[in-house]
Amino acid sequence: MLRRINSTVVLRTLRGSATSSPLTLTELVHATELSRPTVEGVVEGLIESGLVAEAEDEPAHIRGSARRGRPARRFRFRAEAGHLLGVEIGPHRVAAVLSDLTGRITGSVAREVQETATAEERLDRARGTVAELLRRTDVARDALRAVGVGTPGIVEADGTVRLGTALPGWTGLPLGERLRRSFRCPVLVENDANAGVLAEHWKGAARGVDDVVMVLAGLSPGAGSLIGGRLHRGFGGAAGEIGALHLLGREATPERLLSTTDEPLHPLDEAAVARVFAQAKGGDERARRAMDRFVARLVHDVAALVLALDPELLVVGGWASGLDGVLDPLRGELERYCLRPPRVALSLLGDTAVATGALRLALDHVEGELFTVETAAAV
């Protein structure tokens, strides 16, 4: 157990230097506060495991002509020793993004899918998208160390979709089990809005903010929340399902509120939302009224979360284009309804947020296995 803990400490130190320069044994001894014999033994073991490699010697013009003799051995974390995969399975698209073990993205592929596609058709499209990405990047499937998946619905711990009204045939689908048949590594399934808030916290508008709500605005809005930097799923994974608030005595659904005719929009037709937003921007009066109704409903839904959680930041994202036009009305209305209105920002990641957040799930899993002393002590 002690050797495992020491290996974790050394590996974490080397991984932290992955974006700078390799470290010598002396530098590792100082950084880890372990004895030199211990560090030497640990490094050799990590080299055998493939996670660490000896770095190439620096050219003489970089070392400096004053230094003579054989240069000290330097070691680096092998970020290329494995790969991580993030997958979005949504109403209109399937996307996959690949990274090395530091989270550096090395490739991505996105493909459209019909909102009316069956569960089997959607899963086939997901498998095909992943296969295309691995083929393009020349990465073997066995090199994957973890896979994260983001999808609409209430997702249980084992990856089963307990309730998923946004996708046909999704309710009750053992998604995690089905996807694990395609991989030899852990597969982690998460709600799409939860994945989105993780992505914005990692690479987007919420960097450096630990209390944040992200809303995926659309015909069936959902929200993901970080409280103190930790994802808040709720007891049964249903936290943030604000798309169900219309059931509380408000019969007008979002697809009816956004309609510019007497007929409601199709409940899965997010492209229609984009068209209404574009028409409102162009001066269409009926579209402007429909957008005003939608924003008013969105404000009421979001205000419930803001009042309960008091986030520092509210990030607005989703599949509907033209969301920038929602921000100012949203800010104004939140100031009316909330005791302390949060800052409001547009997602910086756009339609890549869910897949990026799914990748973050995979990265968190691997970091927990490789770089966390508590995990090493439990083994």
From TrEMBL:
Transmembrane segments: none annotated. InterPro entries: ATPase_NBD, ROK, WH-like_DNA-bd_sf, WH_DNA-bd_sf. Belongs to the ROK (NagC/XylR) family. This is ROK family transcriptional regulator.
